# Entry
Amino acid sequence: MRELGFDDPLFEAAVWIAFVVPAKTPPAVVERLTTALRTAAAMPDVQSKMTERGLEMLNATPEQFARNYKRHFDVIVKRMQELDIEAQ
# Structure
């Protein structure tokens, strides 16, 4: 969209494929899952399959994903408030 002249942060949205767990999941379990998932995501055949489908693998840590998610979420919430759109 930026190439077309739209510089609105709303157009920075992306599609995510992510694994999430309940907020109270013990840190040791989160770390174990993170290690296993990051290892799998780094495998050449997984990378190849994702690339073939036009996807870019970020392989983010839980902290990186949370920061990115919050940044995008905040943009959407701000726009909803500006347009007086109520979440349902």
